[in-house]
Write a structure and sequence with these properties.
Structural class: alpha/beta
CATH superfamily of the largest domain: SGNH hydrolase
Largest sheet: 5 strands, parallel
Number of helices: 17
Radius of gyration: 24 Å
CATH topology of the largest domain: Rossmann fold
Shape: elongated
Distance between the termini: 22 Å
Strand order of the largest sheet: 2-1-3-4-5
CATH class of the largest domain: Alpha Beta
Helix content: 40-55%
Length: about 425
């Protein structure tokens, strides 16, 4: 494990972050007061900032709608963070970005001044680029507060060279590759120094570049491009080694090795209609796994399988404080919500509770909060205040006993827990 997990001290702050992110999305800006509130409220959340190109953005062929929600390596990394506690992600991956563009972007972030799309890189086609350019003061605040900064960059520096390898003499290819790698090295090292000026201590993970084309598509040129990818990795390793410190790690995420020999299943270059270097969903998972193993020493997946027609009505996986629930009293899915037996909830969250037969209600106490849930009621009481819920608690016959089943998400929210749901993993993450 690369770093020890931060202790959670504050509760109920994720709504503040969501509010601020909505403001950014809708208005393109956030007030200084809101930014300060987010920074203060989220001081105990593990914060991830992802910078870089379209691989960081999670792009796949066919993503033309700017409102499309990608599911790339960064989003998967956020899910891995939820396994360990409260986590938040800011993804500033820019389609078409080169290392020169990253250098310009980090310089503007370092200065804390809004820039323009051309001030980052001329000709960028990312529909969000104007917003990203205007947000550099806010991004500086987020970058300064980050615990982890991830970067994928460089594919756009060498892609045209890789595409033309069949038409180029070996000596010409090698000379141009050396020139581009030298420029890449200079640009990225300076960009990382800009980031370090903003945040002196965060862990920075810089990915190397996978070679996207399988041997069947390249023939004899496969060896040439694999050698080029190895040279690229050498440059990345040199950059990270020059900046790495025990108190401020800068490390290489070696993703290229994960693609070697299995490129056809991990990239869209075959069957995309036109050459496309971007990862498939399996490819993005491979990248996320490399990053996660550097940070936490593991990449976790839920025991409950992904949703299929056969198990569409099955309860989702539930992870409470990093532990996936596995009890003899199985969760019950009702009206799209998961319900757990009272005893299992108390054990999972480490709360105290009691059952009142006269009122058919359960009282749960945790961290200064008291939640009362009554069978059949469409309200729960949180510190004496009614809060509406969609589906009431109920009694369920389990063997010869009547078990009290409580709505997990409503209870967790009432107790001040952070609740996140991954539709891709069919998993609810609940953290104090």
């Amino acid at each position: 494990m690369l770093m020890a997990w931060k202790k959670i001290m504050a509760a109920g702050t994720s709504g503040m972050l969501l509010f601020a992110l909505l403001l950014i999305t809708l208005t393109g800006s956030v007030s200084a007061a809101d930014a300060a509130a987010v920074q203060g409220a989220e001081q105990d959340v593990f914060r991830i900032v992802a910078l870089g190109d379209s691989v960081t953005a999670g792009y796949e062929p066919g993503m033309t709608d700017p409102n499309t929600k990608p599911y790339g390596y960064a989003e998967r990394l956020l899910e891995q963070g939820w396994y360990h506690g409260r986590s938040a992600l800011s993804n500033y991956g820019i389609l078409g970005l080169t290392s020169a563009g990253l250098l310009n972007y980090t310089a503007a972030i370092k200065d804390g001044t809004a820039t323009t799309p051309d001030g980052i890189q001329a000709g960028l086609r990312d529909p969000r680029i104007s917003q990203f350019a205007a947000l550099t003061p806010q991004i500086k605040t987020e970058l300064a507060a980050a615990d982890l900064i991830t970067i994928t960059i460089g594919g756009n520096d060498v892609s045209s060279l890789f595409l033309n390898v069949k038409e180029m003499a070996t000596a010409d290819f090698d000379a141009q590759l050396e020139q581009r790698l030298a420029a890449y090295g200079t640009n990225v090292k300076t960009a990382l120094e800009n980031i370090r000026a903003v945040n002196p201590a965060a862990t920075i993970l810089l990915a190397d570049q996978y070679q996207p084309a399988p041997k069947i598509a390249l023939g004899a040129n496969y060896t040439t491009l694999m050698s080029a990818a190895e040279r690229f990795t050498g440059v990345v390793d040199s950059i990270t080694a020059s900046l790495n410190k025990a108190e401020a790690p800068v490390l290489t995420a070696h993703v290229a090795a994960q693609f070697a020999g299995v490129e056809a299943s991990l990239t869209h270059i075959i069957g995309a209609g036109a050459a496309d270097f971007h990862p498939t969903q399996l490819g993005y998972e491979k990248i996320a796994r490399v990053f996660a193993e550097l940070v936490w020493g593991e990449y976790r997946t839920p025991a409950v399988p992904a949703m299929t027609t056969a198990n569409a009505a099955a309860p989702m996986s539930i992870v409470v404080k990093g532990i996936e629930l596995n009890t003899p009293n199985k969760p019950i899915l009702k009206n799209g919500q998961n319900f757990l037996a009272l005893k299992d909830i108390l054990n999972a969250v480490g709360a105290n509770g009691k059952w009142d037969n006269k009122t058919s209600s359960a009282t749960i106490v945790y961290g200064g909060r008291t939640v009362v849930i009554t069978i059949g009621s469409k309200f729960i009481k949180v510190n004496g205040v009614n809060q509406a819920i969609d589906t009431p608690a109920f009694l369920q016959k389990v063997g010869k006993e009547d078990k009290t089943y409580l709505p997990l998400a409503a209870l967790a929210t009432g107790l001040g827990f952070d609740v996140n749901y991954s539709s891709k993993l069919r998993t609810a993450f609940i953290n104090p």
